[in-house]
Specification:
The structure holds two protein chains of two kinds. Chain A is of the alpha/beta class. Chain A has two domains: 49 residues, Orthogonal Bundle (Helicase, Ruva Protein, domain 3), CATH 1.10.8; 107 residues, Dna Topoisomerase Vi A Subunit, Chain: A, domain 2 (3-Layer(aba) Sandwich), CATH 3.40.1360.10. Chain A is 42% helix and 12% strand. In chain A, helix 7 links the parallel strand 5 and strand 6. The longest helix of chain A is centred in the N-terminal third of the chain and has 18 residues. Chain B has eight helices and eight strands; from the N terminus they run βββββααααββαβααα. Chain B starts with a strand and ends in an 8-residue tail after the last helix. The chains are: A alpha/beta, B alpha+beta. Chains A and B meet through helix 7, strand 6 and helix 8 of A and strand 1, helix 1, helix 2, helix 7 and helix 8 of B.
């Protein structure tokens, strides 16, 4: 068994850092060492930021987004188009769409997709509030911005069924050739979806 | 340990940051799981979608290990699956039913039935009778097969139009006259190969297989019937849009932009 080279506090820090995505035990050790070296200008502010975030983070009661206020920054923004509701799987997808800056609608975070293999059913997702929001008079379009996977699209079909009675236009993201994509390297499914959804040029 | 087999993807679950656990239905090794390294990469993920047919090589040090798959796509149909509600629900329902089988237990007949479903998965009217036949086959493979060869009351093999909910055996029109309110309907296409299946026949057939699946499989195991099955039945009952082009035209805003 290897001998410990640092005290239990530092070992615990390394163990916790190693649980972050993208970090293994070696990179966690490097990150911990970096923090230890820069205690004043990095470790201390980081500790404070983590504490503040832990204390203030809440899930938005309206859309399911994660923020430090409820309603969240997106929901509280009056300049956004209230007629468009963009449904996403998780907060990472919301952030990705916001990075793209392609739409200025409001969002609804489902918290996952239906997945029988993982035992995720409709009751595990934030679908009930979505149905309520889609029935609000201001909402005229629901965009199903879900992943182009069978689970994602099954969830989209399920939501479409639930919103049948709501007077909203239901749309979904296009499937096809990505920017910079070369046809030779695309899978058959993407190619046939792209060909079916071709548009005049 | 190593084997090579064809397979149809039933499901994929993320494992760690880069890998995926893939569930395949294979003819020679049944429902079999394995790890695909790099399975969530942009290149591999489209291949690991449910419904796709693949060529799989499974390797493990010991037979009881999860093992690693090396997978190559042979027929990728998941785009057709995603475009149709009936196809998505149908595939999810079939996959959920296959999970009733123990892992690594070969059921080549069920694999063939699944392959037939996958081949016509985006044609709801054609695939629904295939799914019913699949459910009948599944009941048989689970040890609860229905005996549709002769009448339980008279022993005749003609004019069989009912099934007894108690015994799971066919009953003829004459033999079941007295109890017809309590008997389940037996559509002709379930016992005569090549017979036409009307919408009412398909509905009756799903009621028949649903009854025995619930009574003999799901209730004893204390698990609910898969939601996808009822969603599939509701979708084919509505006969609603099967394909994205039709869905787009329903919305009335993209047809003019499509060729």
């Amino acid at each position: 068994m290897p001998r410990a080279v640092a005290g239990p506090e530092i070992e615990r820090l390394i163990q916790l850092l190693a649980r972050l995505p993208g970090l293994g035990p070696r990179s966690a050790r490097r990150a911990a060492l970096h923090l230890v070296r820069r205690r004043a200008d990095l470790m201390e502010p980081l500790t404070g930021a983590l504490g503040d975030a832990l204390e203030k983070i809440v899930v938005c009661g309206a859309c399911g987004n994660i923020d430090t206020r409820d309603p969240c920054t997106v929901c509280a923004d009056n300049t956004r188009d209230g007629s468009m509701l963009i449904v996403v799987e998780n907060v990472a997808d919301l952030w990705a769409l916001e990075r793209a800056g392609a739409a200025s609608g409001r969002y609804h975070v489902l918290g996952g997709t239906l997945s029988p293999l993982d035992g995720v059913g409709p009751d595990d997702l934030n679908i009930e509030t979505l149905v309520q929001r889609a029935h609000e008079p201001a909402v005229t379009e629901v965009v199903l911005a879900l992943n182009a996977t069978v689970d994602g699209q099954t969830t989209a079909h399920y939501i479409t069924d639930l919103l049948r009675e709501a007077k909203v236009k239901i749309t979904r993201l296009a499937h096809g050739v990505p920017i910079g994509g070369e046809l030779d390297y695309l899978d058959e499914g993407t190619l046939s979806a792209a060909l079916r959804s071709r548009t005049p040029f | 340990m190593e084997w090579t087999d064809q397979g149809i993807v039933l499901g994929t679950r993320r494992h760690g940051e880069t890998s995926a656990i893939v569930e395949l239905m294979t003819p020679g090794h049944g429902r079999h799981l394995g790890l695909v390294r790099g399975g969530i990469s942009r290149k591999v993920k489209p291949i690991l979608q449910p419904g796709n047919s693949v060529q799989a090589v499974w390797r493990a040090r010991l037979d009881e290990h999860l093992g690693n798959y090396t997978i190559e796509g042979t027929q990728l149909i998941s785009d057709r699956l995603m475009g149709s509600a009936a196809a998505s629900y149908g595939m999810q329902s079939v996959a959920a039913l296959l999970r009733l089988l123990p892992e690594r237990d070969p059921h080549p007949a069920l694999f063939q039935a699944l392959a037939a479903i996958v081949a016509r998965v985006d044609q709801p009217s054609a695939v629904a009778p295939l799914i019913v036949q699949f459910e009948l086959r599944l009941l048989a493979e689970l040890g609860f097969g229905l005996d549709l060869s002769e009448c339980a009351a008279t022993g005749n093999d003609a004019d069989l139009i009912y099934v007894s909910p108690k015994s799971g055996r066919a009953v003829s029109r004459a033999g079941g006259e007295e109890w017809k309110e309590r008997l389940l309907a037996l559509p002709l296409f379930l016992k005569t190969e090549g017979a036409e299946a009307s919408a009412d026949d398909v509905t009756a057939a799903f009621a028949l297989t649903g009854f025995f699946l619930l009574r003999r499989v799901f209730e004893p195991r204390g698990i609910p019937m898969p939601d996808a099955r009822s969603s599939f039945l509701a979708t084919i009952a509505r006969g609603r849009r099967p394909h994205p082009e039709e869905a787009a035209s329903d919305l009335g805003f993209t047809r003019d932009r499509q060729l």
